[in-house]
Amino acid sequence: MNSSVLDLLPTPLKKTQSVDSTVSSRSALIRKLKQEDGQCWPSIGSKKRREESDAELEERLAKLSSSVEGLLLHIGEDPTREGLVKTPLRYAKALMDFTNGYEVNLEEIVNGAVFDEDHDEMLEVHIAYIPKGKVIGLSKLARIAEVFSRRLSVQERLTKQIALALEDTLDPIGVAVVIEATHMCMVMRGVGKVGASTVTSCMLGGFRDDPKTRDEFLRLIGK
Q: What residues does the GTP cyclohydrolase I domain cover (predicted)?
């Protein structure tokens, strides 16, 4: 992966980088990623996984299962005992399902469901945007969010990825994405803060530049 791709991935802006220059360069970088791999923010091996044959998938599952067997052994379990014999394969299949966002192409998700319209009202969903001549099918918003959430990531990056994907697809006046999530690492171990949640947001265009528009969106979603 080249340095320009790596520069896109972290969530904070560089200290020497202005907001305007960052926004103007995003679409070009995203398009470059699509041209290189056909996906957005690919990881090493994601294209191979997307295109692998049934035999290659079986080999991948076998390797994952073997790794899970090793994990069970190292915590003091017997993976050959009754009740655990099929656990490694089940775990491997579940892991592949939970991370199938690596196999999905964003353009296939959108699939032409972008329509010409002549209004510019703000549309309120979990993901909000102010259209500039085009709107997208509502189900596609959920699918775009699902694609990126089924990849290994952090909440801050997930929030930005969804916003940038919409910005690149629709070229809207503004995009706003707010995510509230409970992190099990805070609930099940460590500090043990049951009920704690983390809220992240990414505001682009009109939502970043116009406080009234941003406040309207946050008020509508109760934030």
A: 66-123, 125-221
Token couple for 112: 């032409």
Residue 68 near residue 92 (C-beta atoms within 8 A): yes
Do 70 and 111 sit in the same domain of this protein?
no
**pTM, 2 dp:** 0.64
Domain shared by 214 and 153, yes or no: yes
Residues 115 and 144 in one domain: yes
Looking at residue 1, its amino acid is: M
Instruction: Please write the tens of the pLDDT for every residue from 40-57.
Output: 555 566 778 888 899 999
> Which tens digit of pLDDT belongs to each residue from 93-144?
999 998 888 887 766 666 655 445 444 433 333 789 999 988 988 888 888 8
Burial of 54 (0-12, 13-18, 19+ CB in 10 A): exposed
* Average pLDDT of span 172-200: 82
Residues near 170 by beta carbon (within 8 Å), at least 6 away in sequence: 114, 129, 131, 132, 134, 135, 136
Whether the CA torsion 154, 155, 157, 158 is positive or negative: it is positive
How far is the CA of 22 from the CAs of 15, 25, 29, 195, 206, in angstroms?
11, 5, 10, 35, 15
**pLDDT of 204 strictly over 70:** yes
Query: 59 to each of 52, 63, 72, how far by Cα in Å?
Result: 10, 6, 20
Nearest to 169 by CA among 118, 134, 138: 134
